[in-house]
Design brief:
With 795 residues, chain A is of the alpha+beta class. Chain A folds into three domains: 49-148 and 213-290, Aldehyde oxidase/xanthine dehydrogenase, a/b hammerhead (Aldehyde Oxidoreductase, domain 3), CATH 3.90.1170.50; 306-467 and 622-784, Aldehyde oxidase/xanthine dehydrogenase, molybdopterin binding domain (Aldehyde Oxidoreductase, domain 4, 2-Layer Sandwich), CATH 3.30.365; 474-615, Aldehyde oxidase/xanthine dehydrogenase, molybdopterin binding domain (Aldehyde Oxidoreductase, domain 4), CATH 3.30.365. Chain A has 19 helices and 28 strands. Chain A is globular, with a radius of gyration of 27 Å. In chain A, helix 6 packs across helix 7 and helix 10 (381-398) packs parallel to helix 18 (747-759). Chain B is an alpha+beta fold and 340 residues long. Chain B folds into three domains: 1-54, Uridine Diphospho-n-acetylenolpyruvylglucosamine Reductase, domain 2; 61-119 and 160-214, Uridine Diphospho-n-acetylenolpyruvylglucosamine Reductase, domain 3 (2-Layer Sandwich), CATH 3.30.465.10; 221-334, 2-Layer Sandwich (Enolase-like, domain 1). Chain B contains twelve helices and 13 strands. Chain B has helices at 15-24, 38-43, 80-85, 87-92, 94-101, 106-111, 114-118, 131-136, 165-171, 273-277, 285-301, 312-332; strands at residues 8-10, 29-32, 51-54, 64-66, 72-75, 175-180, 183-188, 208-214, 221-228, 239-247, 253-261, 268-269, 337-338. In chain B, strand 11 and strand 12 form a beta hairpin. In chain B, helix 5 packs antiparallel against helix 9 (165-171) and helix 11 packs antiparallel against helix 12 (312-332). With 178 residues, chain C is an alpha+beta fold. Chain C folds into two domains: 2-74, Beta-grasp domain (Ubiquitin-like (UB roll)), CATH 3.10.20.30; 76-160, [2Fe-2S]-binding domain (DNA polymerase, domain 1), CATH 1.10.150. Helices cover 35% and strands 14% of the residues of chain C. Chain C is built from six helices and five strands, in the order ββαβββααααα. In chain C, strand 3 (49-52) and strand 4 form a beta hairpin. The relative contact order of chain C is 0.13. The chains are: A alpha+beta (795), B alpha+beta (340), C alpha+beta (178). Chains in contact: A-B, A-C, B-C.
Chain lengths: 795, 340, 178
């Protein structure tokens, strides 16, 4: 078998042959099984990064820039070093090597070298006997700055390039520019019966995982460096540490302990990982750095603010002829994943609707604000918001039901998008049908009385990216399995369980394939010393890629077991079935042994038991520069209907219910899939109504705390109803696709569209704060004065 | 973890011991009750006391006592959760119980005290931040600096009184019992405030608020509390409204009072309210009109500033809305008003 | 530095800590009871929630010394207490959270479960609105709270011996008409 083997959508064993499409006889897959680490989490036993305490451990703290943009004239750390209890102080010159998650745009250093680019940019780090001493030492570091003109408005960065934020960039303050044209957009727009054109704004939001970033490092006397970090991509941290520290990667071990949420916010290598490593190397002692919540807000890498302009041309029966987008992206102070963001802002819009022609023009600029990066639905949540609101307006102008309009433009399954992406399974129509029925759309929309409304939106998202961020031909996911005579099977995966349950997913698959009880399976994950390389938890790749690798490895081991047992029993291999912790003879019910006995037979006949498996993507993507960005082996599809109540006295939008239908290919565990869908919808709704990651007029984060950055409480979250749609993707593990990011997208435009149904105003500029809603209601009333009664929905 | 500056903690078991603990270095000592306001402020280095004196072990500060002539005494260390759930308070002083029920979230109401809430430090988006943040800005008028970032060029701090219970207590005519080195004094809560956000309370270092006294209410007393906030838990008020409507036996308004919080350094009483509400029969059209007039009156008198986070123009628009709903709710007896 | 005597999960611990240390710092760094999490530094998130005399409080805003003389329960105390009372496995609320998928990253959940445990101790059959309210001081970023509500309701149903009502994703959709 090869890394690109397609395993089929069926169960490994069943009445039909393994892999047959009609085969639904799974033992574990498809069932709402508890997680393998659930009770460890529930009892507080699981160890997160800050739970690690090593003997003799020092505590490190970071000195940060109080200037948004400044040159560093000098740094004097002597007083800090002289403070009793301080063991080391480092600054930018100690770690000058650049890094950055995208190899072509490496513009970060662990600590600022010569220049700071936002308020909060790390400048120096101290390791001391305890946190209080480290904090005290920070105040003794003297930094002389020469303040520079600072950019807070991306429109200014577009046109002004003096001073430049990154001196060596060719294009002044432009981080990345992409323009791609597919077909005769202008011609099609001219020929359209209706063109809707408007501006949209997406504000900045951040991940706000409840666990703050933390890293611990220790260097053994023989030089082996170990770093535990709350990262969602162990492998990239490993590579970046080797580069920045100048160490042989074979002498570095990176471990991700249990992780307290990430959502993209722990994807980049971060300053603290390099700092603890360097400080541990200098001091010869373990060093921990735990960021305060405020520091997490500065580290950011959250959703890029975007200013979007869309033109959509349609025929009079509602078929899209052309879509034209112009997008300005506020990247903040560093590149991070920004190159990809810029492509994604255009590349990921070309489904689930058919675009005959399409153009996008996206520009990411630098500003002196915390750096933006990937947040759940990376790069595509913002354009999706704009486009789905515009689509609703198309439906309104044509007098069509918004769901019907979306149906008419459905691109279908097993097709190719206008920008050359291959679509495999596509359950979007079923998603529409589910939310239409569950919400009572036909009976209720437009009939709920003024103030209450329903809104729809759809979306598409990737199940992994086709290419790793650094080009190579090696597998994107690898699995090793070790089995022994007790019946215990351990699976080693480089995949990062960030709470989404990927370790459990691996265990379910291996147990399913080898017919084991789940309790027999252990998973060892995200430890670069123990596990094969995996590219980590981003771009919704884990279930698809790690799942396929797990099937691959398990089937190789299963073949050994079946062969050994069949030989032992002297029967045809087809009679040997592995199920529920036993191995049975399909034709002789009296013949049945335990999994452990089967492993003993196999071990005796073969050797010490183990297997490996991997996954790599097929060659995909459009044949043009950037055509591979946005290419994915499979795409997920989502539709939401939200029900809102708009109070016209206060301007407050209350989302009362949200119906989420998501095509995840196959739900390997429907309970976990539903949890991802609910969590996604909750996060989208919060972005629309409550959250804003902004800087004030001084360039200072407006409220870097969980008090001022308001994530919803249990009272503020609506009733969420998850409806799982299974399209059985031909290449996903048992047909599975992603579920962790796609279901966020539609909630935001669906709210805008529901507000239109409720009170007749179009909200095009996020966030939908009550003040803005009142303002628009007033404008709308002024325009329709005399035509309507002064009816107002009261709270 | 965000750390607190070092201090010495004392936990006296009697009021006398607490007073003498403070008396040694009154300017460098602070009192801690529930700690839910003080500890974040210490972590932000808004205060750096050498000594912190806890009142938690003084049992006498946690009692509810009936006094002469129908007055009720509430110990300053009663928990907000106890105030919110107290049957007598809910019946006789509904605005207070409702205000306590809307402070922050459940854990903080379990910890926070009535006295602590009355003495809550004023709040401002430029002030309730870490040392690093404030220093990046060059600090502000209220702490360590000379500039006001709310009112550019302003010379007086406009940090907002954000204590939910204070407006309610003002409508109830509460009195505060304060003890200090010079003995005990009783002050009307209305007279307790100063119009300076940097120091909005007439409380000297070394003094302790021990008791809140409430005058009797009549059977016709109605009250309610309204709170504007973005989330329906945890958040401080963006605006708060305490309403009092006393009805005579025929259902006419004999006395009304409105106090608005989270605007400026002290809670603001709406003036001339009796001129629109007194004598009005509740329930009918006249009442509706009178409530609208009261809302208009409040709108004209209240001017939220960009001191607490949030859109201050919207906060101003919400003044009449919350006033109307809170007055109506007071008469109906179905408060509190929140989450509109 | 002072000697503290803290009654935690049924044990009396004597330890030395500076006066300005919070209960959270003592739990995590002196006693290695790291189940109490630190999420926001200062009372905004609820991850450090513990029970003091059965009531949920924030250990990050509690000075360790002031917790003396009170009965402190952390997440580590639930299972042993359940066993001491003759139970099997973990505490019913822990099992319900596990069973219902409420534990995604798990970081907020120790605090969440203690708030839920306190709710069920004073109200054996809370409505969903009461559950929402009781948990409204514990922020969760993963779940959208739905599976947490379902877990609390499932624990109630288990206690009553009735089946919980099916979740949205469990109800099969009617066959499509087209």
């Amino acid at each position: 078998m090869s890394a690109r083997e397609i395993h089929g959508i069926g169960a490994p064993f069943g009445p039909a042959q393994p892999g047959a499409p009609e085969n639904r006889e799974f033992a574990l897959i498809g069932k709402p099984t508890a997680k393998i680490d659930g009770l460890a989490k529930a009892t507080g036993a699981l160890q997160y990064a800050d739970d690690i305490q090593l003997p003799g451990m020092l505590h490190a703290k970071t000195l940060r820039s109080p200037h948004a943009h400044a040159r560093i004239r000098s740094i004097d750390v002597s007083a800090a070093l002289a403070l009793p209890g301080v063991h080391a102080v480092i600054s930018g010159r100690d770690l000058p090597e650049r890094y950055g998650v995208i190899p072509w745009t490496q513009d970060e250093t662990a600590l600022a070298v010569d220049k700071v680019r936002f308020i909060g940019d790390p400048v120096a780090a101290v390791a001391a006997v305890d946190e209080d001493t480290a904090n005290q030492a920070l105040r003794l570091i003297k930094v002389e700055y020469e303040p520079l003109y600072a950019y807070f408005d991306p429109r200014e960065s577009l046109v002004r390039h003096d001073p430049v934020i990154h001196e060596d960039k060719k294009d002044g303050n432009i981080s990345k520019h992409v323009e791609l044209v597919f077909g005769d957009v202008e011609g099609e727009l001219k020929a359209s019966d209706l063109v809707v054109e408007d501006d949209y704004t997406f504000h900045g939001t951040t991940h706000a995982a409840i666990e703050p970033h933390c890293a611990v490092a220790t260097q053994a006397a023989d030089g082996l460096l170990t770093v535990w970090s709350s990262t969602q991509i162990t492998h990239y941290v490993h590579r970046a540490l080797a580069k920045v520290l100048g160490l042989d990667p074979a002498r570095i071990r990176v471990v991700q302990p249990a992780l307290g949420g990430a959502f993209g916010g722990k994807s980049d290598p971060f300053s603290l990982e390099f700092c603890v490593a360097k400080l541990a190397m200098i001091t010869g002692r373990p060093v921990k750095m735990l960021w305060t919540r405020e520091e997490v807000f500065y580290a950011h890498r959250g959703r890029h603010p975007m200013q979007l302009h869309y033109r959509t041309g349609v025929t009079k029966d509602g078929r899209i002829r052309a879509v034209d987008a112009r997008i300005l992206i506020d990247g903040g102070s560093y590149s991070s994943f920004g190159l990809v963001t810029t492509y994604y802002s255009g590349q990921l819009l070309t489904g689930p609707y058919d675009f005959p022609t399409y153009r996008f023009h996206s520009t990411r600029v630098f500003t002196n604000k915390p750096p933006c990066g990937p947040k759940r639905g990376h790069g595509s949540v913002q354009p999706r918001f704009a486009f789905e609101v515009q689509l609703d307006e198309v439906a309104e102008r044509l007098g069509l039901d918004p769901i019907e309009l979306r149906r008419r433009n459905f691109q279908g399954g097993h097709t190719r998008t206008v920008n050359g992406q291959r679509i495999t399974s596509n359950g979007f129509l079923k998603c529409l049908e589910e939310v239409e029925r569950a919400s009572g759309w036909q009976q209720r929309r437009g009939k709920l009385g003024r103030g209450r409304g329903l809104g729809i939106a759809g979306s598409m998202y990737i199940s992994g990216t086709n290419y790793p961020v650094y080009p190579n031909e090696m597998p994107q996911a690898g699995i090793q399995i070790a089995a022994e005579r007790s019946g215990r099977v351990t699976v080693f995966t480089g995949g990062n369980d960030i709470g989404q349950g990927s370790n459990s997913m691996v265990a379910y698959i291996v147990a399913e394939e080898l017919g084991l009880d789940l309790a027999q399976v252990r998973v060892v994950a995200a430890d670069t010393d123990l596990c094969p390389v995996d590219l980590g938890a981003y771009s919704s790749r884990v279930t698809f890629m790690v799942g396929n690798a797990a099937i691959d490895a398990a089937r190789k081991l299963r073949a050994l077991i079946v062969e050994a047992v069949a030989a032992e029993w002297k029967v045809e291999q087809a009679r040997v079935r592995l199920i529920n912790g036993r191995v049975i003879d399909m034709q002789d019910s009296a013949r049945s042994i335990s999994s452990a006995q089967a492993l003993q037979i196999t071990e005796a006949r073969h050797d010490t038991l183990g297997s490996t498996g991997s996954y790599n993507t097929p060659k995909l993507g459009g044949d043009y520069r950037g055509g591979t960005i946005g290419a994915s082996p499979a795409y997920s599809f989502t539709a939401h209907v939200v029900e809102v109540q708009v109070c016209e006295e206060t301007g407050r939008i209350r989302v009362e219910r949200c119906w989420i239908a998501h095509d995840c290919g196959r739900a390997l565990n429907p309970m976990i899939v539903a949890g991802q869908m609910e969590g996604s919808a909750y996060m989208g709704i919060a972005e629309a109504l409550l959250e804003e990651h902004g800087v004030n007029r001084f360039g200072l984060h407006a409220g870097p705390s969980l008090l001022d950055y308001r994530i919803p409480t249990a009272i503020d979250t609506p009733e969420l109803a998850a409806r799982i749609v299974e399209s059985l993707d031909p290449e996903g593990p048992y047909g599975a696709k992603e579920a962790g990011e796609g279901p966020l997208h539609p909630s935001i435009p669906a709210i805008s569209n529901a507000v239109f149904d409720a009170v007749g105003i179009r909200l095009r500029h996020l966030p939908f704060t009550p003040g803005k809603v009142l303002e628009q209601l007033r404008t709308a009333r002024a325009m329709t004065q005399g035509k309507q009664s002064g009816q107002v929905s009261r709270c | 973890m965000l750390r607190m500056p070092r201090f010495e903690l004392l936990e006296p078991t009697t009021l006398e011991a607490a007073l003498s603990a403070l008396a040694e270095r009154p300017e460098k000592s602070m009192v801690i009750a529930g700690g839910t306001d003080l500890l974040p402020n210490l972590k932000h280095e808004l205060f750096t006391p050498e000594r912190v004196v806890s009142l938690a072990r003084i049992a006498s500060l946690r009692s509810v006592r009936e006094l002469d002539q129908g007055w009720l005494s509430l110990g300053a260390m009663l928990k907000l959760e106890e105030i919110a759930a107290h049957e007598t308070l809910r019946r006789r002083y509904p605005a207070l119980a409702q205000a306590a029920s809307l402070v922050a979230g459940p854990q903080l109401r379990t910890m926070g005290t009535l006295g602590g809430n009355v003495l809550l430090d004023t709040r401002c988006q430029w002030y309730n931040q870490t040392y690093f943040w404030r220093q990046a800005l060059g600090f502000c008028l209220k702490k360590d600096g000379t500039l006001c970032h709310v009112v550019e060029g302003g010379s007086k701090c406009v940090a907002a009184a954000s204590n939910d219970t204070a407006p309610a207590l003002m409508t109830l005519g509460a009195e505060l019992v304060i003890v200090g080195p010079a003995g005990q004094r009783v002050v009307r809560i209305d007279d307790f405030w100063l119009a300076d956000g940097a120091a909005n309370k007439k409380l000297d270092p070394g003094e302790i608020l021990v008791e809140i006294r409430l005058p009797p209410t009549t059977p016709g007393h109605r009250g309610a509390y309204g709170k504007l906030r973005m989330r329906d838990s945890i958040d401080f008020p963006l605006l708060s409204v305490a309403a009092r409507v006393d009805l005579d036996s025929s259902g006419k308004v004999s006395h009304a009072d409105l106090v608005i919080g989270a605007l400026q350094a002290r809670p603001v009483r709406i003036k001339k309210l009796d001129s629109v509400l007194a004598g009005v029969q509740t329930g009918g059209d006249a009442w509706k009109t009178a409530v609208s007039q009261a809302a208009e009156l409040a709108y004209r008198q209240c001017h939220p500033m960009p001191n607490v986070p949030g859109d201050h123009e919207w906060r101003r628009e919400m003044v009449p809305v919350y006033v109307r709903h809170t007055l109506e709710s007071a008469v109906r007896g179905d408060g509190p008003v929140h989450g509109l | 530095m002072r000697i503290l005597k803290l009654q935690i999960n049924g044990d009396l611990h004597e330890l030395a800590a500076p006066d300005h240390w919070t209960l959270l710092e003592v739990l995590r760094y002196s006693l290695q009871l790291t189940g109490s999490k630190q999420g926001c530094d200062k009372g905004d998130c609820g991850a450090c929630t513990g029970l003091v005399d059965g009531k949920p409080v924030l250990s990050c805003l509690t000075l360790a010394a002031t917790a003396q003389g009170h009965e402190i329960t952390t997440i580590e105390g639930l299972l042993p207490a359940h066993r001491r009372a003759g139970g099997e496995g973990a505490d019913p609320i822990q099992r319900a959270f596990d069973r219902c998928g409420a534990l995604q990253c798990g970081f907020c959940q120790p605090g969440m479960m203690l708030s839920a445990r306190a709710l069920l101790s004073r109200n054996a059959q809370p409505t969903r609105a009461e559950i929402r309210s009781a948990l409204s001081g514990n922020l969760c970023r993963c779940t959208g709270y739905t599976q947490i509500f379902e877990a609390v309701e499932s624990a109630v149903c288990e206690q009553l011996g009735v089946a919980p009502k099916p979740r949205a994703w469990e109800t099969p959709s009617p066959e499509s008409g087209s």
